[in-house]
Amino acid sequence: MKKIKDILYDTNDILVALLILFLAVLIILSRVNAIMAYPEKVIAASAGKGGSIHVAEPSEPSESGDTASQEEGQSVESDSPELYSVYIAYDQPLSKVAKTFVDLGFFDTTGEFTAALTARGADKKVKAGNFIIPENATTDELINIITKSGQ
Q1: Domain assignment present for 8
Q2: pLDDT at 48
Q3: Could you tell me the pLDDT band of residue 64, with boundaries at 50, 70 and 90?
Q4: Range of 5-9, 114-118, 121-125 with top mean pLDDT
Q5: What is the mean pLDDT of residues 74-92?
Q6: What share of the chain is helix, strand, coil (3-state, %, to 5)?
Q7: Which domain holds residue 10?
Q8: Is residue 43 situated within a structural domain?
Q9: CA 94 to CA 102: how far, in whole Å?
Q10: Number of domains in the chain
Q11: Which band of pLDDT confidence, cut at 50, 70 and 90, is reported for residue 33?
Q12: Residue 120 lies in a domain
């Protein structure tokens, strides 16, 4: 009788562990879907305000060695300035951040971007996150946006 009781308890423990694991997977999958839907929500919110937004994607060197802007987005014609959604990863080097802003046309060179950050003492203060930047943002406005926590 004792062996049957032990088997029943062991099986019950395994079933409870599997149930907890299944619930954890469901919760994680539901949040991944919400995170993946975020760009569409930003675009829809911007379109509702009468503006336009472009999602900036990191550019990769082409086979010939030169790079092209990998900018993509849906726009709605309006008098308000276009908005750029720029994502800066936690471990992204400053050179790649600079390249993103050069590709978007905010700076002419990556050196100009890093010099502007250094001159304002913000080269160590760039935060990770998703930032919405107006097309007509000044250098000071852009630096203020990316040195605050992501939106």
Answers
A1: yes
A2: 61
A3: very low
A4: 114-118
A5: 72
A6: 50, 15, 35
A7: 1-36
A8: no
A9: 12
A10: 2
A11: confident
A12: yes
Q: Is residue 42 part of a domain?
A: no
Same domain, 81 and 135: yes
Asked if 133 and 101 count as a contact pair (C-beta separation under 8 A), the reply is no
Report H helices in 69-109: 94-104
Q: Which residues contact 85 (CB under 8 A, 6 or more apart)?
A: 39, 42, 53, 54, 55, 56, 130, 131, 132, 133
Per-residue pLDDT band for 5 (boundaries 50, 70, 90) equals confident
CA distances from 78 to 47, 51, 83, 150 (A): 9, 6, 12, 26
Which long-range contacts link 57-66 to residues 24+ away (Cβ below 8 Å)?
58/96, 58/99, 58/100, 59/99, 59/100, 59/103
Residue 128's pLDDT band (cuts 50, 70, 90) = confident
Q: How many residues does the chain have?
A: 151
Residue 38 in contact with residue 48, Cβ under 8 Å? no
What gap in Å lies between CA 95 and CA 110, rounded to an integer?
Answer: 7
